[in-house]
Design brief:
Arc Repressor Mutant, subunit A; alpha/beta; globular
Length: about 375
């Protein structure tokens, strides 16, 4: 500030004093604030333990088992292959995290448990459970976070998992290399498509090309909502082949076309009046991201439209998801970084797009949407 301490420095010195902490915890007007701050700090400290409780519940299919209704501890323990004492410890922990709830006792006096609010939400988002299981690799990559941040880990599990991130020639990867992550992306992206299509209407467009479109979730949702729309998919050859089989199996083959290639070396086909990049750009470092944006711009005629959708940094109310979660996840993956809308807008304009607009989405913590017009 030039004239003395920044007010935040003064604030931090005050908060750091044990005497002030005791006073804030006792004074009626500041007590609720102090308690919330203390709880938030402890949640950060205990976060890994919380995630392992969730992982255990997912691995045991606990939420699916409780979907039909509450069950007694004795019955759940048998299904978990645990003693009642062991099962009770896990169930108590899950209750504390609002994953499940206590529901009284049965006729024999055994405690009963049912779905909690978070557990019920898990049932409506199968992609979350898939990601929870997938996170085992991320946890191993983060066993020494400083080594990861300093670039001292030559090989990471996530780097091996995502074939396009570590392969010298991704276009040569076969079905065995892409099948597992393609299925994961198909499941985890399923709930994104509806939010995007609600945020931007395709009514006036004739042909949508999804670049890096995986097994075609977004395209299928778009084609079902807009029967006049023709769809195209571009991805690695093995991924595009899986999408083509899916389009044919679901009866969209006459409206769909798939193209296999490497985004870094294969020109994108022309002819679509709108293209989409759904959770693609943030998977790539800056030079590659710019190459992708320029390739899409070259495939579009002037006046064409690009939908760029992904979780973004600096999302109000969801900042930890962008910079904390995706920042470390993409580092472990070996490529990419989360970017705020302002930076993506500048990149789009540098790539040859004109007007860029941030559209409101239903769940911005999961995906935000930039709509750009080709200049």
């Amino acid at each position: 500030m030039g004239l003395g301490l920044d007010w935040r420095d003064w604030r931090n010195r005050l908060i750091a004093r044990p005497g002030f902490q005791r006073w804030a915890a006792d004074f009626p007007l500041t007590r609720p604030i102090a308690q919330r701050r203390a709880q938030a700090l402890f949640d950060i400290t205990a976060g890994f333990v919380y995630s392992q409780i969730l992982y255990a519940c997912v691995e045991l299919d606990l939420f699916d088992q409780l979907e039909a209704g509450p069950q007694a501890l004795s019955a759940l323990a048998a299904k978990m292959d645990m003693t009642e004492q062991q099962a009770d410890r896990l169930l108590r922990a899950a209750v504390a995290l609002d994953l499940i709830e206590r529901r009284g006792v049965d006729a024999a006096g055994s405690p009963r448990f049912g779905l909690g609010r978070h557990g019920a939400a898990m049932l409506g988002n199968p992609g979350i459970a898939a990601m929870v299981k997938h996170h085992r690799m991320l946890y191993r990559d983060l066993d020494d976070p400083l080594a990861l941040l300093r670039g001292e880990k030559a090989v990471t599990e996530l780097g091996r998992y995502w074939a396009y991130a570590s392969s010298v020639d991704p276009a040569q990867e076969g079905d065995a290399s892409v099948s597992e992550y393609s299925e994961l992306m198909s499941i985890s992206n399923a709930f994104v498509a509806g939010d995007l299509l609600d945020a931007y209407s395709l009514k006036t467009h004739r042909c949508l090309m999804d670049v890096g479109g995986g097994q075609g979730n977004f395209l299928l949702a778009a084609a079902e909502r807009w029967p006049h729309l023709r769809i195209r998919l571009f991805d690695l050859p093995a991924v595009a082949a899986r999408a083509e089989q899916r389009f044919d199996r679901l009866g969209f083959g006459d409206r769909a076309a798939t193209f296999g290639g490497d985004l870094m070396s294969t020109p994108l086909p022309k002819g679509a009046d709108i293209c989409s990049l759904v959770r693609v750009v943030h998977d790539h470092d800056d030079d590659q991201a710019m190459q992708i944006l320029r390739a899409v711009r070259s495939a579009l005629e002037p006046g064409g439209t690009l939908l760029l959708a992904e979780p973004m940094a600096e999302t109000p109310g969801a900042e930890p998801i962008g910079d904390a979660y995706f920042g470390l996840y993409l580092l472990a993956m070996g490529t990419g970084r989360p970017r705020p809308p302002s930076e993506l807008k500048a990149m789009l304009q540098e790539a040859g797009f004109g007007r860029v607009q941030l559209r409101r989405t239903r769940r911005p913590m999961q995906t935000r949407l930039l709509v750009a017009n080709a200049a």
